[in-house]
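quick one, 414 residues, struct below
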Amino acid sequence: MRSSLRGRRARSPEPSQPRAHEAGAAGEPTLPQPAPPQPRPLRMDKRTKNLTKRLRPGDIALIDHQDIDRVAGEALVACKPSAVLNAASSISGTYPNLGPQIIVAAGIPLIDEVGTELFEIAKEGERLRVDGNVLLRGDVPLAAGHLLDLDHVVGAMEEARLGLSEQLESFVENTLEFLRKERELLLDGVGVPDIRTDLADKHVLIVVRGYHYREDLAALRPYIREYRPVMIGVDGGADAILEGGYRPSLIVGDMDSVSDKALTCGAELVLHAYRDGSAPGLDRLRSLGLECAMFPAAATSEDIAMLLADDKGAKLIVAVGSHVNLIEFLDKGRSGMASTFLTRQRLAGKLVDAKGVSRLYRSQISTGSLLLLIGAAVVTLIGTVAVSPWAGAYWEVLRGYWDNFVFWVQGLFS
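---
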């Protein structure tokens, strides 16, 4: 199945079609030819989440992302590139990943398997053209791949769904392996660091930059206003908290996808390290002059944030943007996502998932209807006052207030 989905990298572009004035008979009118695609700046990065930080509308995006997941697809679409070129296979057939369909459905050309050599051939920021499935520097082809259309993506997704049983078996094996490695952490809290932030008997809101995190965080405003939960941002989730108008008390993660602005906002930092104690994000924090607590674990960052909150006595843990089902675990692209299943079993009834809150409580009253209702109320009030026997007295009182206001304003400038 996978061989049918994968293609070989570069092909020479198709021979150009004869021009209209060559194809037509002498003296016959010719149809105007479409203008060639305009050169656009190329932005490239093998990590999609790093690329989307500097990708601008109209740019050409070059990534190396096997099985583009939903979060990456939505992030790319939000940047509005003119085209997305993928050095790898956007749909390998391992599982029905959602990213390619999101990109193609948004009308953005997705060109697959252009090859990793393009990262050496092309230069960051240079202006190139995408014509069909070919990337050109001037008139010189640099690479060609497979231009994916919606029918192909939907068909590939259907084929990938047939292989889910194999992935389920692998997921179970990963879960058992994680249980063997981290049973002390899961059962007894061994390895959880000490922190300054007080979580005992408090509500804790953990924000992960996952599916629908913006909408769900906005829908939780009444809850946040009433309960004042301690906010924990998981890597880029800290930026989501800042964007929502709040400030995180804790930032947990390997610190690779969180901004310097979030890191320096005053939140306490907990650095997710490998099981052996090494942590690639430590150098970044030291360069910023920031201190942190270390949390070595084989789990994902969102899981250690939940385990940390539970170990420190949180009364309730509300998760925004976290992963909750098998497709999302696979979409995350890590075998370590098996830890999420066990973590949720450990937290049991203390964990409340906010996923879908925005869709569940979406208002059915449109802004136009609300304005119409207010207008009707104002007209009714004016009509009531107008027919009242005391209407004259009302208007005299209002006129007096208005005259006083005008006199006060004139006094300011006299």
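DSSP finds 19 helices and 15 strands in the chain.
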